[in-house]
Amino acid sequence: MNLDLSQLTHWRREFHRFPETGWSEFWTTARIADYLEKLGCFEILMGEQIINPEFVRGRKQAVVDKGLANAKVYGMNEKWLDKMGDYTGCVAVFDSGKPGKTVALRFDIDCVNVTETTDPNHIPNKEGFASINEGFMHSCGHDGHITIGLGTALWIAQNRDKLTGKVKIVFQPAEEGTRGAAAIAASGVIDDADYFASSHISFCANSGTVIANPRNFLSTTKIDIRYHGKPAHAGAAPHLGCNALLAAAHAVTQLHGIARHGEGMSRINVGVLKAGEGRNVISTEAELQLEVRGENKKINDYMTEQVMQIAKGISIGFGVAYETEIVGEAVDMNNDAELVQLVEEIALQQPQIHSIDDYAFNASEDATVLGRRVQDHGGKAIYFILGADRTAGHHEAEFDFDENQLITGVNIYSGLLQRLLG
Amino acid sequence: MNLDLSQLTHWRREFHRFPETGWSEFWTTARIADYLEKLGCFEILMGEQIINPEFVRGRKQAVVDKGLANAKVYGMNEKWLDKMGDYTGCVAVFDSGKPGKTVALRFDIDCVNVTETTDPNHIPNKEGFASINEGFMHSCGHDGHITIGLGTALWIAQNRDKLTGKVKIVFQPAEEGTRGAAAIAASGVIDDADYFASSHISFCANSGTVIANPRNFLSTTKIDIRYHGKPAHAGAAPHLGCNALLAAAHAVTQLHGIARHGEGMSRINVGVLKAGEGRNVISTEAELQLEVRGENKKINDYMTEQVMQIAKGISIGFGVAYETEIVGEAVDMNNDAELVQLVEEIALQQPQIHSIDDYAFNASEDATVLGRRVQDHGGKAIYFILGADRTAGHHEAEFDFDENQLITGVNIYSGLLQRLLG
Amino acid sequence: MNLDLSQLTHWRREFHRFPETGWSEFWTTARIADYLEKLGCFEILMGEQIINPEFVRGRKQAVVDKGLANAKVYGMNEKWLDKMGDYTGCVAVFDSGKPGKTVALRFDIDCVNVTETTDPNHIPNKEGFASINEGFMHSCGHDGHITIGLGTALWIAQNRDKLTGKVKIVFQPAEEGTRGAAAIAASGVIDDADYFASSHISFCANSGTVIANPRNFLSTTKIDIRYHGKPAHAGAAPHLGCNALLAAAHAVTQLHGIARHGEGMSRINVGVLKAGEGRNVISTEAELQLEVRGENKKINDYMTEQVMQIAKGISIGFGVAYETEIVGEAVDMNNDAELVQLVEEIALQQPQIHSIDDYAFNASEDATVLGRRVQDHGGKAIYFILGADRTAGHHEAEFDFDENQLITGVNIYSGLLQRLLG
Amino acid sequence: MNLDLSQLTHWRREFHRFPETGWSEFWTTARIADYLEKLGCFEILMGEQIINPEFVRGRKQAVVDKGLANAKVYGMNEKWLDKMGDYTGCVAVFDSGKPGKTVALRFDIDCVNVTETTDPNHIPNKEGFASINEGFMHSCGHDGHITIGLGTALWIAQNRDKLTGKVKIVFQPAEEGTRGAAAIAASGVIDDADYFASSHISFCANSGTVIANPRNFLSTTKIDIRYHGKPAHAGAAPHLGCNALLAAAHAVTQLHGIARHGEGMSRINVGVLKAGEGRNVISTEAELQLEVRGENKKINDYMTEQVMQIAKGISIGFGVAYETEIVGEAVDMNNDAELVQLVEEIALQQPQIHSIDDYAFNASEDATVLGRRVQDHGGKAIYFILGADRTAGHHEAEFDFDENQLITGVNIYSGLLQRLLG
C-alpha cells in the first residue's frame, strides 16, 4: 500500500458503500481491523477492552441485531466477532518499544440514517460507490474520518522505527447522537495519553482552510423518558386508568419551563413524543425523546437534574411507572494552546492550506468526552476542523466532500506524531 | 318565657345583630348557653367535650383571635370561656331520667362573610337589628336555626315531665365551608343517638312547604394546598429559585384534568389561587383553595386521593415543600324512611304548611357528617328543608326570611320529640 | 336459494373470509350487490347516490387504495366499481308498487383491525373459513349483520307480492369508529322512511334473549387535531421555531381540563399523540386523536365546542397552523315505543327466544345517526340487540358467535316487515 | 444658598423624610420646583409638557389619589398642581441664550415601598430625618439623586454667564418598576439633546470609586395580564363558567416555556398571580404580573411578542376576555466612548475618587430609555455609577449611604457641563 490519494480514495469509497448506523458498525469495524492487521505493527483492542458497558448510550438491541445480520450479508470477516462481543469499534495500539509520550487519535466510524440521493450527477452514483444499505448513508463524512485514521496508521507502519512512545488510534462507534465516546472514555483505554487529537472534515470550512481552535463546544445530554400507565375504557371507566399520555403531555409543559440558568446559555427540547394506543382507551405507554444543553458542564448538569426531578414528580402525580435513559452526552472542551499552535504550524506547511480560520462551534461533539478525559488525567487535547468543499449540508442526501483533503488530513496527523514522538 | 312567635322573633333578631364567622362564635355560644342555663333542665357540654381537635377543619387562629376580642367587646358572658377552651359551639343534653330513645338535633350557628346591605327597606335596617359586625352577616339564616333550637329547648323545658329518654341539642359552629361537623362527629358526643334530625330554613322552598326528603346530597372535601419555594432574582439567577407560583400553576392544570369517574358525578374546582411576592422574584409562596365533590363518598374519596397525589408529585417535580389541609367535608346521606314519613305527617298537621315538595339538593351540607355517623352506629337520620319566603338569595347582602316560619320549625322538632320520646 | 340456516351460514362464512376495514369494503360491497342483483327485485344504489362526501368521516385514502387493490386480488366483480366511485356500501330499494309505508333497515359491513387467532379449536380455523386478510377480522359480528340483511332481502324477494310500500336495506360501511352513518344520513337516502330498524348481534346478550330497548346510547364525536409548526435547530436557534409538539402537549393538558357538564355525564380522552421529527429539532408536526362523549347530544356538543375552541386558542398562542377533523360521530337515541313493542312481540314468537332483557348500553353506535335522522323527519326508530352466545369478547382475536341466531335475526326483520307492510 | 455639603445634606434629609412612591411624587415635585424657581434661571416644565400619557406605565389611580392627599397633608405648595395635572416630575430648562450644545441630565425622584427600620442606630433615626410616610422609604438613594440634581442646578445658576447652549434637568418620576422614563422620552422633551447623562449612587460601588462604563444593561418589559371570565357554581353548573383562574394557570405554564433565544440571554418570570373569588365558584378574575428580559432590545421584543401571543391564545381557548398592560420598560444601552472618557477624567480629578472600576450591570434601569432616545436622535449618552458606602443593600429597611459623596456627584455633573458647554 502506498500512502497516496489513490489509496485514500479507494478506502473512502469502500466504506462509503457500506454505511452502518451507530453501535451496528460490524462490517466497518471488521474491515478496519483487517487493514490494521495487514500493517503488522498494531495490537487491536475490541469489545469490553475498550467499552465500559455501563456507559453505553443509546444502543437499541433490535438495531444492532439487524446491523449484524446485514454485516454478514455484506461479507464481513466473521473472525473478529468473538473479540467484539456485543460492541463495535476498535483501538489500534502502536508501541514503539522506546520511552516517550503516548498520543491518542480518534476517528468516528458510524453513518447517518439518511437515504442517499439517486441524482445521477451525485459523484457516488456516477462513480458507482453509493450506499448499498437503503436508509443509511455516510452523509456526515465519517467515511473520510475512517480513511484518515487508516492513512495515519499506514504512515506509522512506514515510519515505525523513527517513532518513540505509543500511539492509540481510536475508531469510535456511534458518534451521531453523541453516544459512543462515553463508554470508551469510561473503559480507561486512553487514560495514559499525554496528547489527544480529533477532527471533523468539512463542516463549515472549505478546502484550503483549517480551523485549529473552534470555540463554544456545548455540553449536552440526550435523554429518553418512558411512562407506563394502566389502561381503562375512556367511556365506561376512565377513573380506573393511569394515563401515560396525559402524564407525558404535562411532563413536556414542565420540561420546557425549566428556569434559564443565570450564568450562561441553556437549552431544552422535547423533540419527539409518542403516546397512546387508541382513541377510546386511557393510554398506557408514552415516550419522550429530549435533549438539554449548556454553555458548560455545570449548566448542562443543572438542566439534566431538573429533567430527572420533573420526570419523577410526574410519575408520582399521575401514578404511572417511569424510566429515564441517558442515550447520549457530550461536554464542553477548550483546546490546549500547545496543540493549537502545533496544528496551525503543521497545517500552514501543507501546500493545500492557505488559511487558519476562527469559528464558534455552538454545537456538540462527543470527541470532547474523550478530550476532557485526557485533560482530566493531565494530558492535552485538541479538536480541529479540516476544511473541505462539500456539495450539500451534512446529513443531507446530496452530501459529498472534496476527497483531495484526505491527504491533508493524514499529513496533519502524521505531522503531529512526528513533532510529538519523532 | 312563652313559646310564641314574639319570643322567637326576639331571639332571631338578637342573634342577627351579632353575626360571628365559623370557629369564632364566642358571643353566640355564650348567649345560647345563658338561655339554656335559664331553662334549668340541660347539661351544657362545650370545648373538647364535644370537639375532637384532630378533626377541626378550616380554623384560622387569627380569625378566632379577632372574633374572641370582638365577642368581649359585644359583652359576652365571659364565665363560659374556660369551658369552651379554644372551640365554640355547645351541646345541650336533656336527660328525662326515664328509659327511652336518644334523639340528637342539630342547629348551625355561624354567619357568612358578607356585609349587610344599607338599603333602608331591608327589614333588619328598618327594625334596627342589622349586623353591627361589618363584613359579617347572618345571610344564610343560621340565626333562624339557633332560634328554632332554643325554641325546641324551651318546649322541652315546658314538657320535661312527659318525655322519656334523652335529647341532645347540638349547636354546631362553622357550617359554612362544611367545617364544623367532622370534629363534633369525631368527639363521639352523639354516637348513642337513635335518631338524628337537622334542617335548613328557606333554601329553595317558600313559606308553606316542607321538603321532607331532599335527594342528592353531594359528598365534598375542601382542601387547601400550600407550596413553599426558594426565592431568587428573576434576572440574575433564576436557576437558584424553587418556583412556588409555577408549581401552583402546574398543579391547577393537573387538578382540573383528574379523570371523570365512570360510576357517577364528580367535580373539581380550584377556586382561589394566590402566589408570588414580586414581578422580579422567583415566587416562594403559593396557596390553592379547592374543592372536590362526588355523587357519593366513594367518588369523592377518589377525587381527594387524586388531589393528594398530584399535590405531592408537583412538590417533587419543582423541588418545593408543600402542605395540604382538609378544611371542610361533607358526605352524601339518604334520609331514613321512618323519619321522612314522621316529618311529613307532622308538617302537614301545621296550619301554615300546605304541601310537601320533592327536591334534588345537588349541593353539600355538613349535617350529613353527623347524620351518617348516627346511621353508622345503627340510628336513623333525616335532613329536611323548612320553606320560608326570602327577599334575596342565600349569602346575598339583601337576604332576609319570613320569620313566621320559626314557629313552624319549632313545632316540627317538638312534634318529632313527642312522637319519638312522648 | 332457500331461506334456511344452511344458506345463511354459507353467506356468513364467505364474508368472514374476506374482512375489509371501514371505507375499503370493495369486495364485500360487490359481493352483496351480486347477490341482490340475483334476487331480481331490488334497485341497487351506490356511491354518491347514498353518500354525501361532505360528511364522510375518518376515511384515509391510503387505506382505501390498499383495500381496493386487495379486493381486486380477491376477485371482486369489478363491474360495480364505476357505480361505487370512491365509496363503499350500498342501499337495496324494494318498491312494491303499492301505496304504503317506507321501512329502512340498516346492516353494517366493515371488519375490525385485528388478526384472527391461529388456535386450531377456533371454529373458523377448524371449518376453514378464517380471515385470509392478515391484520383484519370480522371479530365484531358484522359478517352476521350482512347475512341477516341478505336473508331479509331473500325473504322480501320470496314475499314480494304480499308487501305494500317500500323497503330500503342499507348496507353501511365503516361503523367501527362511528364513521359511516353520517354520510349516508346526510345523503337523504332514507329521509322518507316511516320506520327504521337496526341491531347488533351478541354484544352482552346470550342466545335465546333479545334486548328490545337498550338504554343510554352515548353521543360521541371522534376528532383529530393536527398542528403544523416551523422547524429550527434546538441548540442554535430555538426562537426561530414554532413548536408543534409543545403546542400539542399544552392542548392535551387543556382538553383534559374541560369543565364537567352540570347536567350529566361527559367524557374526554386524547388517546393517541404523535409529535416530532428528532430530538434536536423544534417539532413541526403533531397529531392528536381524541374523543368526547356526552349523556346526550347537548352535552356532547358542549364538549365538542370546547375542543374546537381550545384547538384554536393553542394555534394562536403557539403560532402554529392547525386543522381539526371530525372522524366519527354518534348520537343518543331513544327507541320508539311502538317499535319496541313490535320487536318484543315478534321476538317472543320465535322458538329460540325465551326472554326479553333490559340493558344500559353506555357506549356509542352510529346507527343512532340514521335512527335520529328518521325520527327528525317524523318517522320511528329502533335499535335492538339480538342475543347470541360468543366464544370471546367483541374485537378479540378469538371472537366467534352462535350461527343459529342468524335465522332468528332474519325472522325478526321479516316479522317487522310483515306487520308494517303486510 | 452655598453649594456645599451642608446644603446638599440639608436637601437630602428633607427629601428623605417625605418619600413618595412612583407617579405620586406630588410633594417632592412641588418642593423641587420651589427650589428651582428660587434659582431664577430655569423654565419649569410639568405635566403633559414632559409626559406623553399614552406611554405612562404602571400608574394606579388609587395610589396616585392617596399620594396626592398625603402630599397636601405634608404641606406641598399647591400652586404647582394645575401645571402638573395628573402627572408628577418636572424638567428644568436652562437656556444660556448663546449658541451651543444641549445637555440633558436625568435624576429619578421616587421612593421604594419599604418601611424604614426603627433601629435607633440607623442615622435617619438618630438625626431625626427618617420617613414619616409609613410603608415608604427612600431606600434606593433617589433622595441623593434629587439632591445632586438640585446641586447641579445651583451650580448652573452660579455659573450661568459662563455657559453656552442649553441644559435640561429631568426630575423623573417612577423609576422603580422602570415605569417613568418611557412617557418622558415619548414626550420628545429631550429629543434635541446632544448629550445625555444619568447615574446611580452607591449600588455596587464604595466611596472613592466611580464606574464610568457599566456594561450589560438588560432590556426589559414589565407586563400585567388580566383575564375576565364568567362565574358559575362549581358543583351545580361548572359548564356555564368561563374559568379565569384556569386560564391564568395555563398561561403561566405556557409563558415559562417560551423558547430561549438563540442569540443571547432571555428571561421570563411570572412573579405574582392572583385569581379567584371562592372555593366553590368558577373564578372570574385573574391577574398575572410578569417581566421579560433580553440581552438586547431584539431579544426582549421577541419575548414580549411571545407573551402577547400566548395571552391572546389563552383568551380564545378559554373563552375569557383579557387585557395586557405594559407597566414598565427599559432597554439595553452602550455608553458612548467620548462621555466615558470625559467622566473618567473628571472623576479622577476629584480628591475623593481614587479609582475607576469595571462592572457588568446585569439588571435594568429606565434611564436607558432616555439615553437611547438621545442616541437614536444622533446624540451621545452615558450612565455611570457614583460609589458610596452603604449600611445595607438597596431596597432594605436599613439602607443608608455616605452623604459625603453628594458633593462628588455634583462635581462630576458640573464638570461635564463645563467641558461640554463651557
Observed structural traits:
homotetramer, 422 residues, alpha/beta, Aminopeptidase, Alpha-Beta Plaits, 2 domains, 8-stranded mixed β-sheet, 4-stranded antiparallel β-sheet, 14 strands, 21% strand, globular, Amidohydrolase (chains A, B, C, D), manganese (chains A, B, C, D)
List the SSEs and their pairings.
Four copies of one chain form a homotetramer.
Chain A: H1 5-17, H2 26-39, E1 43-46, H3 61-73, H4 81-84, E2 90-95, E3 102-108, H5 123-126, H6 142-158, E4 166-172, H7 181-187, E5 195-201, E6 209-211, E7 215-217, E8 219-228, H8 244-255, E9 266-275, E10 285-294, H9 297-318, E11 321-330, H10 337-349, E12 355-356, E13 360-363, H11 367-376, E14 380-386, H12 405-421
Number of helices of chain A: 12
Strand order in space, largest sheet of chain A: 1-2-4-3-5-14-6-12
The top-level CATH class of the largest domain in chain A is Alpha Beta
Average residue-wise pLDDT of chain A: 96
Number of domains of chain A: 2
Q: Report Rg of chain A.
A: 23 Å
Terminal CA distance of chain A: 23 Å
Could you please describe the fold and organization of this structure?
Four copies of one chain form a homotetramer. The first copy, chain A, has twelve helices and 14 strands. The first copy, chain A, is α/β, with parallel strands linked by helices and 422 residues long. Chain A folds into two domains: 5-217 and 332-421, 3-Layer(aba) Sandwich (Aminopeptidase); 219-330, Alpha-Beta Plaits, CATH 3.30.70.360. An eight-stranded mixed sheet of chain A has the order 1-2-4-3-5-14-6-12. Chain A has a four-stranded antiparallel sheet with strand order 9-10-8-11. In chain A, helix 2 (26-39) packs parallel to helix 6 and helix 8 (244-255) packs antiparallel against helix 9. Chain A starts with a helix and ends with a helix.
